[in-house]
């Protein structure tokens, strides 16, 4: 797995979301990454005042230009929070040129509302990206926007979730992972649909009442890791659910400002162990001591 996965997402200084949330998880799953920054922000936009925001479109296009000239190979392209339609089309052109599978988290909104700075023109451009995606990972707000359906909250019957997944696949994406779904008040998880096999399944775990930042970014990164390491998503989803729920419990126990993001650090070692069991990771790449300890018989002094 030496070809890097391109991670096109924002860099927010304060609050672990987007790139900051994704990179440690991808590293724990042994994935090489190439960063494609989309926007620079002093913090995420979900609750901090006076956020400094710098659109990085020019830089993004210059990054892609250099990568073209280097004739660098990549494994896939993962997209998250983007600045606007111009970035979407630059990314889409690059993916087409390099024949890269697109894994698209269509970050646009939550709880029935578009995030500040996004409009219907962006939604339309996002439909275009989704039509070319191998995997799309919207929450229910983003799914409603993409499908031009009314948003009816997060608590939905299974049959409606399946209908939404099938309609999203109808836009062109091969696989659909709907995040933040609830079929009961105290549960939360995913609905997953594979248009090639026609299989549909729901995975849910216990839901905590608090709002956590960056959980969607964690799910997206781990789903991308599974794709790169050729682990079927049906097998990866229980692992993701388990990792996220243990991390959320640690976040609550720590008692810090929830805007800082999910405290998943205590669970990274377990993530690597669990993921390794699923992925047939090459045994030659296992961690090993660079300077093996001398056996007791030869120990110095
Ligand atoms: O986690 C999604 C996300 C990504 N990037 C920025 C955000 C958010 C959610 O609030 O503000 C900048």
Automatic annotation (TrEMBL):
Keywords: ATP-binding, Kinase, Nucleotide-binding, Transferase. It is an enzyme of class 2 (transferase). InterPro entries: PM/HMP-P_kinase-1, PyrdxlKinase, Ribokinase-like. PROSITE patterns: PROKAR_LIPOPROTEIN. One of its GO terms (molecular function) is kinase activity. Its EC number is 2.7.1.35. Residues 64-255 form the Pyridoxamine kinase/Phosphomethylpyrimidine kinase domain. This is pyridoxal kinase. It comes from Streptococcus panodentis. The lineage of its organism: Bacteria, Bacillati, Bacillota, Bacilli, Lactobacillales.
């Amino acid at each position: 797995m030496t070809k890097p996965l391109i991670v096109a997402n924002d860099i927010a200084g304060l609050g672990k979301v987007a790139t900051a949330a994704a990179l440690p998880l991808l590293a724990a799953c042994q994935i090489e990454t190439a960063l494609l920054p989309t926007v620079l922000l002093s913090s995420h936009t979900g609750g901090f005042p006076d956020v400094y925001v710098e659109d990085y479109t020019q830089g993004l296009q210059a990054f892609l230009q250099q990568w073209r000239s280097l004739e660098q190979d990549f494994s896939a392209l993962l997209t998250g929070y983007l600045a606007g339609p111009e970035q979407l089309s630059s990314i889409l052109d690059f993916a087409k040129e390099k024949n890269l599978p697109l894994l698209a988290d269509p970050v646009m909104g939550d709880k029935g509302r578009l995030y500040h700075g996004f409009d219907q023109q962006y939604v339309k451009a996002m439909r275009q990206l989704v039509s070319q995606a191998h995997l799309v990972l919207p929450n229910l707000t983003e799914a409603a926007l993409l499908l031009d359906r009314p948003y009816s909250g997060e608590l939905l019957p299974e049959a409606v979730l399946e209908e939404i997944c099938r309609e999203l696949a109808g836009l062109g994406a091969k696989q659909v992972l709907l995040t933040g779904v609830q079929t009961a008040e105290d549960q939360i998880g995913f609905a997953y649909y594979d248009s090639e096999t026609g299989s549909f399944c729901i995975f849910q775990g216990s839901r905590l009442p608090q709002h956590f930042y960056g959980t969607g970014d964690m799910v997206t990164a781990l789903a991308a890791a599974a794709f790169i390491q050729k682990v079927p998503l049906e097998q990866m989803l229980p692992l993701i659910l388990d990792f996220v729920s243990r991390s959320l419990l640690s976040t609550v126990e720590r008692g810090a400002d929830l805007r800082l993001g999910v405290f998943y650090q205590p669970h990274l070692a377990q993530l690597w162990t669990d993921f390794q069991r699923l992925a047939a990771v090459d045994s030659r790449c296992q961690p090993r001591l660079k300077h093996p300890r001398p056996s007791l018989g030869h120990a110095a002094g």
